[in-house]
Amino acid sequence: MPTYPVVNKETGEKKELSMTMVEYSDWRDENPGWDRDWSEGCAGLGEVGEWKDKLITKNPGWNDVLHKHLSLLAQELLRLTSNGKKKRFSYRRRNDR
Q1: pLDDT score at 7
Q2: What pLDDT shows up at residue 14?
Q3: Which sequence spans correspond to the domains of the chain?
Q4: What's the rounded Cα separation, in Å, for the pair 44 and 3?
Q5: Cross-strand partners of 18
Q6: 3-state secondary structure string, the chain?
């Protein structure tokens, strides 16, 4: 869920809100004395990165799971495309033939 750092225009009080964009839009309509605190930036650190990197960081064994399934997929692809003979596999578009 997105986080929104906000600041009170009159008092300078700061808050961090965690809500959906629709909820934030409604909250801004109901609280005109508050505005987005752009000095805090526009994206939280928790929202940046690839999903695989996040899983590997949180669960170190996840990298082994990914490699195992990739290996099984490669073996199955090799079995289906070449009947056990090693062939060079190319990814060509249909129009490139």
Answers
A1: 93
A2: 93
A3: 3-47, 51-86
A4: 7
A5: 3
A6: CCEEEEEECCCCCEEEEECCHHHHHHHHHHCCCEEECHHHCCCCHHHCCCHHHHHHHHCCCHHHHHHHHHHHHHHHHHHHHHCCCCCCCCCCCHHHC
Give the type of residue at 67.
H
- Of 2, 5, 7, 3, which is closest to residue 35 (Cα–Cα)? 7
| Contact in structure between 38 and 4 (CB atoms under 8 Å) | no
Which pTM does this prediction carry? 0.42
- pLDDT under 70 in the chain at which residues? 42-49, 52, 83-97
Tell me how far apart the alpha carbons of residues 67 and 75 are, in angstroms, rounded to a whole number: 12
| 40 Cβ neighbours under 8 A, 6+ residues apart | 5
